[in-house]
Structures are given as structure tokens and as C-alpha cells.
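Regression check, tryptophanyl-5'AMP case 329:
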Amino acid sequence: MENVVSGIRPTGNLHLGNYFGAVTSFVKMQDDYNCKFFIADWHSLTTHPKPEDIQASTNTILAEYLACGIDPEKSVVYMQSDVPEVLELYMYLNMNTYLGELERVTTFKEKARKQPDNVNAGLLTYPTLMAADILIHRALKVPVGKDQEQNMEMARKCARRFNNIYGVDFFPEPQSFYFAKEAIKIPGLDGSGKMGKSEGNCIYLKDDAKTIQKKVMKAVTDSGPTEPNSEKPEVIKNLFTFLNIVSAPETVQFFEEKWNDCSIRYGDLKKQLAQDIIGYTEPIRERINEYSANKELLRKVAEQGAEKARESARQTLAEVRQIIGFKQY
Ligand code: TYM
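Current build output:
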């Protein structure tokens, strides 16, 4: 079975971008691939979180992974920081990665603009750490949302360059993976491009029905179509993107027709959308609460996951050391 790896930074609760962009794929892939899903706690250090926040957030994400349907009997679930082998590979990859190419990564430029007082080396080398996460298990497929494409390109570059430098065919080039025709970008409902933590526009899996309703009813719209069959502006496209993901095809068709004959009422669309999002998240929310309360289970899952992930990581690293010319431990 092909190896699959992906991870999410523990910066609070999972939002619908994480869920539809990545976690739904994680769950679907478990039966057909050799899956490893981790919590990218090292990656979250670029913004200097407090120790107690890291603890709380990693537990939260772990409980949410399980609540979404990731099964620790089928997939390896682990904390990035439990696998120190990743760091050694990260260092080797950094030796082959150039300052210019790291500086050109869009997310680095954005972060540098947003946090000008904290443009640290971890932020710059974020893509090589991500490449190490993937290459340490020699993964072929990585389920991620559209926002990770540039990081994935860097991971492929790291694999290619290592192979070229040492004249080996050791690392496969990992590919982004998604079930839809193309990569998914879950939009924000506030008129901004994507749903994201730093955009402050998230609907969380953990949100209760009332909160979801409030957030959806506040979604930005326009004054409505004035000509039949006209092109939708971005903010309306965003609502339909959501509708396509969470609602029944008849519902989408109903509102498409209403848009096309200019009789659409955004209030009705939003009410329906809120109801359909709640239908999706309600059962998950209940399970999140159950898993969050079961600290012993969470500890066991992480412990078991760490062991399996390290076993795979050790094997890769032993070969990498040999290829580079180092003695074995
Ligand atoms: P992170 O924590 O920002 O997001 C986790 C996953 O959620 C997806 N995602 C979205 N997808 C669609 N629409 C959105 N609005 C949206 N927001 C978030 C992301 O694409 C991602 O798949 N660098 C990664 C974490 C990481 C990683 C890795 C991923 C570290 N090492 C190795 C895969 C493999 C990140 O910051 O994701």
C-alpha cells in the first residue's frame, strides 16, 4: 500500500477549511493507504505559543481527529514532536535548500509582513520542515488543501535535489491528494479569500448550532442579480461553494435557478446553508466532547502512534545517513 502523510498545526480548534480541505480526505483514505496523520506542533512554534496553550491545542486536535473518524487502528496518529528523526532530516534538507527559494515562498512573505517583529529562521525554513515530515515516511500522497501547493512544490524539490546530489533514487516525489477534481479552497464568509485562523473568519467544528447560524447569517452578500443568468460576484460564489459541499444537489439547483431568474433571497439561502452545515457538524461536535474528556485514551493513542511513526522514521533515516556517508548508530 502507498504511504500517505499529512498534518495540521495545533493552533486551536479545527475549522471547516481544515475539515473539508484535509480531514475528510484523511478519513476516506484510511482503508486504501498506509496512512500517517500527525499534529504539527513544531510548526506552531513560529508564533511562540505558551507551553500550556500547546498542551491544550494538541489534545484538542487529537480529540477532533478521532471525532471526525480517524481510526487509530487503521492509521498512525502521532505528535510531530514525538519523532525527533524528523529534525535530523530537516537539517540535511536545509543544507540543500537555498535562501532565495525560501524567501520567495508566498506564505513566508505574507507572514513576514504580518509579524515584522518576529521573522524568525523557523518561519523561513517552514517548507523544509514540512518536506521532512513527508519524506521521513517516503510518502507518495499528501492530502492537503489548495493553500499548501507551494509547500508541496518545495517538498518535491527537496526530494529531487537529494536524489540528484547523491545519485540515488531514494525519495519519491510526493503529490498533493484530493478527492475532488481539483484542490479545495474553503472560502471565508466575510468576503476574504480563504477561511483561516489568521483571517479570523472561521466556522469551527466545535461551534454550536446557534453560533454557526449567527456566523452564516452574517456572511457578506451583494444587492442581488439584476440580469438573468449573470456571472456571480466572488462573495456569492463563495456561498455557492459552501452549498455545493454541504447541501443536497436539489438544494444547490434550487438556488442556482433562483439566482438565474433573479428571484434569489440571500436570507433563505443562508438559513438553508446554516442548517446544512449544522447537520454535518452536530454529530462530530458530540463526539469531540466525548473524546476530549477521555484523556487516558488520547494519551494511549499518541503513545502508540509515536512508536509506529518512529519505527518508520528510523528506517528512512538509517538509509539517509548511509547515503550521505555517515556511519550507522
Ligand atoms: P494548516 O494547519 O494551516 O492546515 C491544515 C490543513 O487544512 C487545510 N486548510 C484548508 N483547505 C481548504 N480551504 C481552507 N480554507 C483551508 N484552511 C486550511 C490545509 O491545506 C491543510 O491541509 N503546513 C501545514 C501543516 C503541515 C503539513 C505537513 C501538512 C506541516 N507538515 C506535512 C501536510 C504534510 C499547515 O500549516 O496546515
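Comparison notes: The beta strands are 3-8, 34-39, 76-79, 141-143, 175-177. The longest helix spans residues 295-324. No diff flagged against the previous build.
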